[in-house]
Design brief:
The complex is a heterodimer of chains A (69) and B (434). By secondary structure, chain A is mainly alpha-helical. Chain A has a domain of 29 residues. In chain A, 41% of the residues lie in helices and 0% in strands. Chain A is built from 1 helix and no strands. With 434 residues, chain B is mainly α. Chain B has a single domain, classed as Ammonium transporter fold. Chain B is 65% helix and 1% strand. In chain B, strand 1 and strand 2 form a beta hairpin. In chain B, helix 10 crosses helix 11. Chain B is globular and about 75 Å long. Chain B starts with a helix and ends in a 19-residue tail after the last helix. Classes of the chains: A mainly alpha (69), B mainly alpha (434). At the A-B interface, helix 1 of A face helix 2, helix 5 and helix 14 of B.
Chain lengths: 69, 434
Amino acid sequence: MFNSSPIETWDGAAAFFSFAGSAGIWFWITVILCIVPLFVTLKTENHHETQHKFRSDDSDSTHGVQKGD
Amino acid sequence: MTPAELEAALVWANTINLEVYYYWCTAIMILIHAGFMMYEMGASRVKHTLAAGTKNVLAFAYMIPTFWMFGWWIYLAMTNGFVPDFEAGAAAVPWSDSMGPNLQDNATGVFWGAFTLFACTTASIMSGAVIERIRMTAFIILAVILGSVVWILSASWGWHYAGWMVTSWGYHDFGASGVVHIISGFFALGVLIHLGPRIGKFNADGSANVIRGHSLPMTMVGLMLIVTGFFGFLGGCLFYGGGGPAGIGQWTNIYGMPTTLSAICFNTLMGIAGGMIGAYTKTRDPFWMMSGALCGVISVAAGMDLYYPGLAFILAFVGGVIGPMAAQVVEKMGIDDAVGAVSVHGVCGILGLLFAGMFLGGYPPFSDDIPTITFGGQFKGMIVMVLLGFIPGFVFAWIFKVLGILRASDGVQEVGMDVEIEAMAYPEDIKTNN
């Protein structure tokens, strides 16, 4: 972890990013960090969906004229 | 300095010019995203404002890592259709030496960046259509499917010199009328069919109500930012490579045909102006006047590397007239497209491809492997783009609908979508009648 350089000299260096050639673990952590927030977002959405499941006037159909706030 | 050293210096200067050029094209393209964010927030009612903005920003944020993970690979590997060429895509897998800082590769990062911003644009196009009722999680996943898979697959087919639509039909789409705008407009249509209208959009007899956003000025400024960002977008459609004096520095389109930045400047501006004037003439509506700029530039984008500027203006004017008319047709079909994305991007994208087929016959292709531009080739390309955009949008939105995560409940819509992101755009409560 503390020795990430793939090069020992700048002469003729090509890929010089940290862990070049063995970056797999960091790639998969990136994937996980993209997916986990979706579940967190979904949980928040579901909480508010449950809390506000019904409109204040249920007799009004979804095709009715928009009501004021 | 020896001639060999001089030649090496010229090649190196060319490389640095290329890198600088695409770096700043990418930065300018971010204005498109900023513009779409303002556009959508202004078009939303007060209680939905921040949800619209947050949704837009998260689409941007998700597009970047996902395009790095698999979007760029799709572009390089899928030119033959649905069967990947793993050898061609090898340099684009995210653990390859080219997909990070590399002293021997000044190009991949800036090209990846520019294409990533094209992907962000496609997601933004869908984003406006679905405001005020789509749930965040479903939207983010749909945005990733559109931007990091569908659009870039279309680009691999029709926006790559080796793409099968280019080599088979001579498909010509310089400024992405098809590969960006048709794809995202019809993807949005597929989603809208399952998402349904906003509460109150349609009456029981099927007639439509106008739902006004809370800030038309914000929307207009947003559209002007999009127009500005188009200079990065359309500039990024050029390639800066070989073919000039000493074999370096000639601008070409993505199909290898020589062009100039001046050509793009002429026709971008004429397209914007023609669309604005056409839409204003048709509607006398400030919203459509600004959307007309998009209608215009999209209607000429496919052939703007080759058009006479007067012709570009005329075609853009026609696009500016047809855009709002198409929006009325979409509304009459019972589709609630909050910002007219299907008509502005989808329908005007179709116009862009067909106009190129009608007016650009006879131009010599860059190589013998590519046929000349024909109306038939453009028409077939248009059909592919419509289907490639529509089907994934329709199918994935249906899946999310079945899972119950596509549309916010009526209660949440009534309170305002901002409740789901636990934020409030105007906490000091501005006076509003909606």
